[in-house]
Amino acid sequence: MRPTAAAKTIARDYYPSFITPAKGAGNLREYPKINNILRYRPGQIIVFEGDVIDYLYEIVTGTVKTYKILNDGRRLITGFHAMGDIIGLPTDGRYFHSAETITEVTVCCYRKGQIEKLMGSNPNLAKKIVKMAFGRLQDSYEQMVSLGRKRPDERVATFLLNCQKWATVQIPSQNVMINLPMSRLDIADYLGLTQETVCRVFSLFKHAGLITLVRPDQIILKNSPQLSKLANLSE
Amino acid sequence: MRPTAAAKTIARDYYPSFITPAKGAGNLREYPKINNILRYRPGQIIVFEGDVIDYLYEIVTGTVKTYKILNDGRRLITGFHAMGDIIGLPTDGRYFHSAETITEVTVCCYRKGQIEKLMGSNPNLAKKIVKMAFGRLQDSYEQMVSLGRKRPDERVATFLLNCQKWATVQIPSQNVMINLPMSRLDIADYLGLTQETVCRVFSLFKHAGLITLVRPDQIILKNSPQLSKLANLSE
DNA sequence: CGCCTGCTTGATGACAATCAAGTTTAGTGG
DNA sequence: CCACTAAACTTGATTGTCATCAAGCAGGCG
Q: pTM, whole model, 2 decimals?
C-alpha cells in the first residue's frame, strides 16, 4: 500500500502533505527521485508491528518512539528515534515494532525495493545500512543490560546520559540541558518501570543535586560524573 | 593478536588444536583457505567484551554464551549460541560482549579483514551477514520485551519455547525434549532473574503438568500450547 | 476561568531477591 | 564399584523494593 493510503487508514486525522524532496545532508537523502516527504502530528502511528514492509521512513525532524505490545496491553518501548534514524529495515519482510510520533514529525520515505536495488549496486550505501543495523544492535544489548540487571535509579541515569545525544543546549560549567519530548509513561515503558517510579527517581536526583527540573520536559544534568557512576556505562 | 595467542592469555588451560579446515556446509565455511578450526573446553572464554575484533568465530559444535558484566559483577547473558552462529561482527571495531563456552566447543575462525574484503566483492555473503545481524536485532527486541515487561513465569515459558530450536529429540504425541546445557544461574542471568526464581518456576510448571524434568538439563515440554499462551509470543 | 491531562507524592501490598538449609548430581580417587 | 567431595539444584523463610492504588498539584488549552 502507498504511504498516503496507509497513513489515511491508520490515522483518521492524518493530513498528507507532499513537500519538495529535500536534497543533500542526511543519510539516504543523497539519492533523490525516490523519496517523498511526509508530515505527521504528535501521537500518530507511522507503521504497525507485523505489517509488510513496503516503505522505509527516514526521520527528518521530530521524535518517534517504537514499541511492542503484549496481548494484555503491556507495552515496551524499544527505542526513541530522531533525525537520521530509519524506521524499517531492508531485507526484512515485516516491521519489528510499531512506530508512533511523539512530537510533530517529518519523514522522508523510500520504497523498500528501490533501496535494496541501490544497496546491490552501491556498496557504500549497503555498508551504511549495515553499520546502522549494527549500531542498533549494540544499543539494544546495552538496553538489555539496563532492563535485566540495573536498578531503577541506574536505568534512569543511563537514560538521561543517553539523552545527551538529543541535547540542544550546552550550558556553561559543563552542565547539559536535555529535552524530553516523551511522557513519563513513555520513559517508564522504555525502562521497564512505572511512571510513578520514574517520577520518584527524578525527584531523588533533584534532591541529591544531580539534576534540575526546569520543566517536566526540560532537565539540566548538574553532575554528569555522578550520573555516569550510577549508570555503570560500559562505553 | 592471533587467536592462539589470545586464547593462551585468556585461559591458562587452553589447548590449541588446529585441525584440517572444514569444507562445504555451514555459513561461512564455503570460503576455504581463510579458516582454522579451534577447540575449547567447557567454561573457556573465546573473546572479551571491548577487545579489538581481529577474528570472527563461527560455532561448529557446542554451545556458547555471550554476556556483559557491570562493574560490581552483575551479569546479563545476551544470548546462547550454537552451530552456525557467529561471534563478532564485521565492520565493527570491538566485541559487544564476552563469549564463553558452556559445553565443549569447536569454532571455525576467520580474519575479520578477509571477511570484509570478501563481503565487498561478494554481495551474497554481504547479504547473509546483514540478514544475520537483522535476525539478531529482532531476537534482541523480543528479549527486551521479556526483560522489561514479562513476569518470571512468562519469561521462562518464552525461554523454553525458544529452546525448541535446540531440541534434539522429537518425542511422540507432539512432546518435545529439550536440552539445557546451561546452568540455572545462566538461565537466570539471561532472563534477568535469580537462579532460585528460575527453579521455582520450573517446579511450578512441573506440578502444573506443563513440563517434565527428566534431569536438570533435560526437559520435556508436555503442553506447548499452554506455554505459548503464557509466553505471549508475537510470532 | 475551569476542565483535563500529565506529573508528582503518599500509603499499602505483592512479589521476587536475599539468606539459608537441604538435596541431588556429577566427578574423583581409593 | 562405591565412598566421598564439591558443585549445582531445589525448597523454605524473610526482607526489601517496586508496582499498585489513591489523592493532590500544575500547566495548557478551549
A: 0.86
